[in-house]
Amino acid sequence: MKIEEFEMMRMQCLYEREVEFNLSETTVLPIRVSELLDREDDIERFIANELSYPESEGSHLFRERIAQFYMDCKPENITVTNGGSEANYVTLWTLLEPGSRLAFMIPNYMQGWGLGRAYADGVDAFLLVKHKDGGQYRWALDVESLKRAVTPKTNVILVTNPNNPTGAVLTAAEMDAVVDVARKAGAWLVVDEVYRGAEVQGGTTPSFWGRYEKVVITSCLSKAFGLGGMRTGWVVAPPKLIEEFRVHLDYLTCTPSLLSDHLGTIVMEPQRRESIFSRTRQIIRKNLPPIEEWFLKRDDLFAYVRPEAGAFVYCEYKLSINSTELINRLRVEQSVLLTAGDQHGLDKYIRTGFGLDIEKTLKGLARVEALMRSLK
Ligand SMILES: Cc1ncc(COP(=O)(O)O)c(C=O)c1O
Hints:
The protein is α/β, with parallel strands linked by helices. It is 39% helix and 18% strand. It has helices at residues 7-15, 33-36, 42-47, 60-67, 83-95, 111-119, 143-149, 172-185, 239-249, 258-267, 270-297, 323-334, 358-374; strands at 21-22, 78-81, 101-106, 122-133, 136-141, 154-160, 188-192, 215-220, 233-236, 302-303, 312-317, 336-337, 339-340, 349-353. The strands form 3 sheets. The chain has an 8-stranded mixed beta sheet, with helices on both faces. A 4-stranded antiparallel beta sheet has the order 10-11-14-13. The chain has a two-stranded parallel ribbon with strand order 1-12. The termini are far apart. Bound molecules: pyridoxal-5'-phosphate (PLP). The site of pyridoxal-5'-phosphate has 14 residues, from α5.
């Protein structure tokens, strides 16, 4: 089967370790294993693990703790996966089929776009658009575009909330509108919630789980938890669908990693989970102001909109150069890696992460500015 390249991911895999300034990362400073094994006997218990095959769907306690992250959710509603990527992959691989279509939010993390084009008849975009609300711009759901994108052939609607790359969080009314459209079409509503817990203001974003009987949630420990190296994610769905996912996963990875299951069980203990979220939010809330100031001071180059979640900014730039060309030049000429608007479905934007070393990020941005000024 032919599948098109997932351009952003390929670029990151090829270059993130080659450049001096990797600003393409969307998470916060990663947590160390030693920080997770900080209670009595934790290390002994961890190294005493026998490296047998683990339970294929994830251990019962791990799934029980994941279930506690959602209202009215049970371990039978969950299967653990190798990262959010596998969670999205198995979901779309199982649900999409020839003859069906995927309705897909743009801009976005484009994994679902490529999978929709490979496994279904095609993909129909609906939009987040910049909208002025109380004097400030935010990214709002264009409900009319969603209604247009959903047709009798639509089998799955995919929403990323909080969104990558914009950092938008849907309002309660927007969530209701999404559910309403999905219900009228009888379509599966797949919601990628990997940035839930990484809010710029306020508490944890409400989940779509429980709002409609055909909802599937995908999530992971990579982003809001700062644990990308664990390669751990999960899918939340009705038990019958979880069984279908398991049938597919038997052909893919069979099981998640035993060591990640052990660590994941520690991470998802509710008190620990909340303390990790508060660490993530502290980093985001400390790092965003200098980044925001940097963009606002350069309003001849950028039209900045504040993200509502995530450690990244998606910013429109005021130059005629195409975004892929711009980020390629930045990589080659300035050794800075950003992602391009093109790679998220909307040109004339760049995405920059700010969750790692903030001084280094600002130095990288100075190089971005130098090249951009030379193009004015
Ligand atoms: C919205 C979204 N979903 C899924 C993933 C993949 O997550 P993981 O790294 O756990 O595979 C990413 C990674 O950037 C993402 O941004």
